[in-house]
Amino acid sequence: MSVAIGDINLGTFPLLLAPMEDVSDPPFRFVCKQEGADMMYTEFISSEGLIRDAAKSRQKLDIFEYERPIGIQIFGSDIAHMQDATEIATEANPSLIDINYGCPVKNVACRGAGASLLQDIPKMIAMTKAVVQSTHLPVTVKTRLGWNDDTKNIEEVAERLQDVGIKALTIHGRTRAQMYKGEADWALIRSVKENPSIQIPIFGNGDIDSATKALAWRKEYGVDGIMIGRASIGNPWIFREIKHYFNTGKILHPPTIAERIAICKTHLSKSLEWKGERTGIFEMRRHYANYFKGIANFKPYRMRLVTLERVEDIYSTLDEIEAQINE
Fold first, then answer.
1. Are 175 and 269 part of one and the same domain?
2. CATH code of the domain covering residue 311
3. pTM above 0.85, yes or no
């Protein structure tokens, strides 16, 4: 049975790329799309930044036709500003608008945005309703189980969000207090999905880092799809690995060094194309270690890659890695 967000058909059990600050930019989204991501999101974008026309926030609105379906994710603490930001984001013509009620980091949550709204459900609902009324696009939400262990109120929150018009809900199986520590609790996500009052798709997020776990949790928790975040960093092929396992029951062989190099080069070329040479080179540095994680004798190459400043030197080093490192 196909999963749909409004009139967006995502197929059977879609795999979603999570919005991640400083990670899920267009270059990274490009390789994830190539590797099988069914739905993607921008990095989260500050409503205040959009209203002020801040260059960094505006740049995050860049989306491309090949990325569809794609959502623009916004966050903020002021309802009127979130309405204005929704109108600005809608003009960028994404497939949908997503609201971030899950970010736990201090400079977001301590300013009354992100997961902070889990402490003020009436305000969260009012803000969501305002966003829904400010766009013709489907509106979705990403949030957590609650603020802490004493306020795991996601079951009530899900119903109330649905009542004001959201078209899908992604739940990260931790509280804000947990940050990214401990294990994600998917039992509460299952409770939301099994609630007969819930008619919208429910996506689970948290700790899915392998094809076998993805299938096991798909069966155990009954969600409509999975959102993958940290496990995709330096590992965009996780999407094709999961799909292969779903379809065949067999584990796909890990990518060869040549395949890793090819994907890394694609990521680099898209980074240079979108950000320009100086920024593109600098921002790719955070990805090299992840692309070659677990590869013996890689450390000297990593140290070189994070200091090189010329594009041709980076490409030649990647060629050297392919030639020298034995699989």
1. no
2. 1.10.1200.80
3. yes
